[in-house]
Amino acid sequence: MVxxxxxxxxxxxxxxxxxxxxxxxxxNNKSLLPSGVDEVHEALxxxxxxxxxxAAQCEADxxxxxxxxxxxxxxxxxxxxxxxxxxxxxxxxGEELGLAGxxxxxxxxxxxxxxxxxxAGGSASLTPRLGRFLADHIDxxxxxxxxxxxxxxxxxxxxxxxxxxxxxxxxxxxTNLRYLIERNYDWAKRMLDSFQDRLIDAIRSxxxxxxxxxxxxxxxxxxxxxxxxxxxxxxxDRLGVEADASLAGIDPASxxxxxxxxxxxxxxxxxxxxxxxxHLDSIExxxxxxxxxxxxxxxxxxxxxxxxxLNPNPAVRRETALALLQHxxxxxxxxxxxxxxxxxxxxxxxxxxxxxxxxxxxxxxVECATWMPGGANGEIQASVIDGAGAQATMIxxxxxxxxxxxxxxxxxxxxxxxxxxxxxxxxRHIGRKLKEMTxxxxxxxxxxxxxxxxxxxHHLRAGLERRMPPPARLLQxxxxxKASQWRPASVGWQEMLGELIAEMPQELLSRTSxxxxxxxxxxxxMQGGWADSxxxxxxxxxxxxxxxxxxxxxxxxxxxxxxxxxxHRAIWAERFVLTALWMKEAISTTHLPxxxxxxxxQELLAEVPLRKIPLMKEIAELSASL
Length: 626
What we know:
By secondary structure, this protein is mainly alpha-helical. The protein contains 28 helices and 5 strands. It has a 5-stranded antiparallel beta sheet with strand order 4-3-2-1-5, with helices on both faces. It is globular and about 75 Å long.
């Protein structure tokens, strides 16, 4: 019999995860689905000697078992993941998601096609509800890939729209996959390997064209998934000869003009577009492209090339710095200004090359551009830090008669995860977007500019500890709000905690007061909603829950407390410090319990037993139940 994991789709075909559906009625976690054809037939043999009504029900059960078995065999063949993904009830899902029509739901591939067709036709969209469904059904990834390849091979307008819909869904699933990989789920890593193997086969067989490879490369880049060496080699083998032949008679000036016409003169847009489509290229191919960009007559092209010093790939960063040094006399004043700012965002052993570029450019007579005026006094809002340690900050600044919305996404332990700046629009339109976020789980609150500066510095430091610079768009946000001073923090979160504690009155730090704060921690943290999403959820947690399945709930909670949270004391202490800082700098009419979170963080570092901190027991309880 096949073992069903807690996070697997429930074999009852409800479309929900097993842990949210039939787990409670199957406490021993025995399989609900026979693993082989013989076992299915054994089950079907039991249907004899029934009444007509019972026989009809048995017939339905037989069809269900057969369909489930067929879906499982398809999953084994397509993903090579040991049948971890039983199929979901396609008809139920279509009705639940409000999809029009009933065609094509006889198979996951047919359902993927129907969904893509409705998105392409405008009768469906990637709503939060659909997004949650896709996040629970990552196994649709290859269905979307196969659909994209098939649709992209047709040159009609309808097929192009369908291919774009498939690509949208594919990128969504790749992003969901990256979230799971960040939490160390083994099956998610295997699924990424399977996807890349499927793509490699398609590249080597000629099933996908060069433009299709570029589109998939963009989707992987947007999802922030790095390609395997084998995938890069396959792309290089397939496209290398064609690229060499096409470059022989190329006119860099005409190419640059065409790119600027397609993407505008914004170097950030050009950088993202060009480096996204080259995401699967080898370092040698990217270096050749950088040389063309940096020597291009169009200034936006040269400015876009310089942004590659913030590329996630260290080899690309080095090639960019060397190319800039070679063409230092072609640098624009804006590039020089940006290099001066972002050299501090790079690992220390990479800064010497940037310093050489800056000195060489100045010797070549390049003047440093000044920071543009305006935008310094924007409205800033920040969300509560969620269960994954993520926090969004939204910034509204003036842009002539309109306003501009910018954002920065922080991720605890990773650094600055994302940044963006949108085109100017009306204040009412921006306000509507922010209200939607405030009404959702994000819970935006106005904060001071001091908080934004501190948060950026802290997460720049966290990124450097992983040798990962921030995305290039952070520089655009910095220019928008005149944040030329942004650089990695000189102190860590432990020192930040010390500074917070130093600002508290002594009576609040007495042992009597501290004991009272700890004793009521679950109450004040949960009532305020600050800790609603704080749980442990990763591969280690899943393994522990599988090992203690069937035990009393309190025993499971204690196992989580001692087996998982105890090892993550520092992570939780840092999260409480960041929450305290956010609350302290919030612009609120009521006092927020920043001191209490800081004190709990201090006690965690002091190795106070977790069983004496009800908030930690509550987090363990939530983790065990969710």
